[in-house]
Write a structure and sequence with these properties.
3-stranded antiparallel β-sheet, 23% strand, 10 strands, 291 residues, alpha+beta, 10 helices, 5-stranded antiparallel β-sheet
Amino acid sequence: MALSVPMGHYSNDKINRFRLIEIIALWEGRLTTNHLQNCFEIGRQQASKDINTYITEIAPNNLEYDKSLKGYKPSSSFVPVLTDGRAEDYLLLLGMNQRLVSKGSHIGWGFNNVATVSSPPRNIKPEVIQSIVSAITHQQRLEIEYVSLYNPMPETRVIAPHTLVQTPLRWHVRAYCEKNRQYRDFVLSRFCGEPECIGKSEHGIADDENWHSVIELELIADPRLNDKQRQLVALDYGMQDNVLIHKTSVALLHYDLSCLNLSLSESRELPEYQQLAIRNINQIKMQLNNI
């Protein structure tokens, strides 16, 4: 479905409200003005106007009013236009809502029966984030004090960061390291003191070859599983023809494999624990050797 009008016509706040309309309608099956009112602290009139704008200008025929539900529901021809239409769109927002509830506040969707399991938070200082965000925005060099497991004493480094990266266990920043003369990952919780911007950098994201080198993992159910087990794994991951194509980059491959409990070396995990396997593992190894 094509958008009726260019999204540049709307403010970021409005676009966010349109996205929430789409997510709530699709994944809860019922949308009311209360969703927008509670989440964005706007009045009923504004919330009603936003829903009408979504229906008439953003995605005509996506929503229909249901008197029995006293709200809007997805039509039979619903096609997401502002989101991916994946469960993660909704579930990630529920997780965020649950974490805010634990701090005495919440987004206010009215659905709070959610629990999240997460790793303990790392100790990341606000001044570190502020400096990194500023350096990325303006392509600046940062002088930092950094510690690692291999060198637990603070060491001065000059880096040029280009992207913040979240993995299931931690946040790090992808940056050019002037000491090593290559792009590396720096864990945010291991910065000491306050980083200092020291001028323009010549090493931006465009020069990070591993960041732009695409890897395609052909994921299949572990062949050691029986037929029924493999069918279940294929269903879990929504595989097409029993294969799931997962795209990542050389820079992020290690984190993707760790998240999937996979390795490019010979597997030693029980198949019931590993569940997945990489069908094109030899091709990936050859690609990495040629980089």
